[in-house]
Amino acid sequence: MTSVPAMSAAAQQLDRLQDDVGALLARLVDAESRWKPWIDSASPDNHCSATNLVHYWALCQADLHDVERRLTEFGLSSLSHSTAHIRQTLLLLSAAIAAMRGHGWIPAADAALPDRNADDLLGLVGTGTRIARIDCAHDDATAWKALAAKARTAAAATGDTCLISLDLGGTKLRTGPLQPGPQVVRLRPTRNAHGQVVAAGRGWLTSAKRPSRPPEPGLVTLPVDAKWLAHRAEGDELLLRDTRGSKRRLLLAAAAPGGFVVSTEKTTYLGTGTRLKAGKKDSTKLGELPAVEQSIPLAAGDVVRLTRDCTPAPVDDDQAPRIGCTLPEVFGNAAVGQRVFFDDIVGGRVIAVDARGLDVRIDRPPHGTAKMRAAMAISLPDTDLPVSALTDKDLADLAAAVELADIVQLSFVRAAAEVKRVFKELDRLGDHELGVVLKIEPSLTDDQRAQLLLTALRRRRVGVIIAPGDSALETLHWCEAAHLPVIDDID
């Protein structure tokens, strides 16, 4: 009797991999069944994207570390690179494993890619196209129309395209103000590794009452008396003592319409009221300079107090750091142990709550320090706040968006219901072309992300803003799975 040779270890591993990939494909089918109503509600143009997003959700529910490792050992593609075309990647992997087992190459059928052509993307953001963003938290529809008209006129004059984006005000959940810093600016020369000046520090000397735009970007504006300025000439030198008492000179290096570019080869600190001397009896004082933006440095283990009081908080008073919170509902609903994030950069957990505020122990970033500033977006993913990201005013402002904008932006979206409200109002207004961009809350669950993005795909032109922070890459993967264009928020 002839004995059958034992199957090699490699063949056994390939058989196991084939079964595992088959099980993952079965997961995709189950997921499509579970999410079928959501997939069916997507725009026809986005049906493929909605299906792939559901496939991504299915993979997120499985522990893929072992499968990933074994695929890599055989030189096969990692599933982490398959986000945009999950089913097709699994079918190709299955075919490759079958070929390695000696069963021949059986190529998978081509997967249909989303029909998102250049015109669609141009209608949303456009490669290289400038976008004029109008914040609906300020002014009114009349002012927005004027701003939009100016932007389009300027674009036409230069031959460029300029899309108009209206950013809905939304519910304001942000840190309160900090006390302003000193009204001081710094002119600093650039030095090489030997300490030699290779570029002078520069500023823009202009009229305080009618300031002119600097002739080049990055120049600090130095406002002075217009009559005194009129007697100056290119090449003049101004003598001064800076805010540290150091003697300094400013050279009027170049004349330009409305003022002079000044330069210095020594670091110079200028403050409101600093006296500039062109001669013994020919001097003036610098006008109002912007206050230095203050911040609170925080490291892991520090405790910061969020307060109902939104008066400007001190920064250098040797007391425990505190800052206001603009939404009173936070204090009646947040509980000990819940997470709090600030711009998804600083984060921690609530350790105490009382009538006046709550204390947050910082655990993000885990190393080094981060700066807490005024007007940072606050996110409480574990707290059930009785407020919506969308206000009645936002719904009313959608009418202006339909009339004058190409894009409307909604920030701090937490639930699919909020997206549905926007779409319902746009349908009522008879609009189906306005691009909708969502800035979604960080730290949502997989189900929450899937529901929110599947709802977004009901509209043909939709995108997502991704804010910097620890969850940015994760959000990017979800958007890639949904075939959604993304915008980096670099404010």
Describe the structure.
The chain has about 500 residues and is an alpha/beta fold. It folds into four domains: about 90 residues, no CATH class; about 160 residues, Phosphoenolpyruvate-binding domains (TIM Barrel), CATH 3.20.20; about 100 residues; about 80 residues, M1 Pyruvate Kinase, Domain 3 (Beta Barrel), CATH 2.40.33. Helix content is about 30%, strand content about 25%. It is built from 13 helices and 25 strands. The strands form seven sheets. The protein has a six-stranded parallel beta sheet. A six-stranded mixed beta sheet has the order 16-15-19-18-17-21, with no helix packed on it. Helix 3 packs across helix 13. It is elongated. It starts with 8 loop residues before the first helix and ends with a strand. The N terminus is likely disordered.
In short:
The chain is built from 13 helices and 25 strands. It is elongated. It folds into four domains: 9-100, no CATH class; 118-171 and 388-488, TIM Barrel; 184-285; 296-379, PK beta-barrel domain-like (M1 Pyruvate Kinase, Domain 3, Beta Barrel).
Sequence-ordered SSE layout with sheet pairings:
Layout: H1 9-34, H2 36-40, H3 47-60, H4 65-73, H5 86-100, H6 118-124, E1 130-135, H7 141-158, E2 162-167, E3 184-187, E4 190-191, E5 197-199, E6 201-207, E7 220-224, H8 226-230, E8 237-241, E9 247-256, E10 259-264, E11 268-271, E12 275-279, E13 282-285, E14 296-299, E15 303-307, E16 322-324, H9 329-333, E17 339-342, E18 346-353, E19 357-364, E20 369-372, E21 378-379, H10 392-404, E22 407-413, H11 416-428, E23 435-440, H12 446-456, E24 462-466, H13 472-481, E25 486-488
Parallel strand pairs: 1-2, 2-22, 6-7, 15-16, 22-23, 23-24, 24-25
Antiparallel strand pairs: 3-11, 4-5, 6-10, 8-9, 9-10, 12-13, 14-20, 15-19, 17-18, 17-21, 18-19
Helix pairs in contact: 1-3, 1-5, 3-12, 3-13, 10-11, 11-12
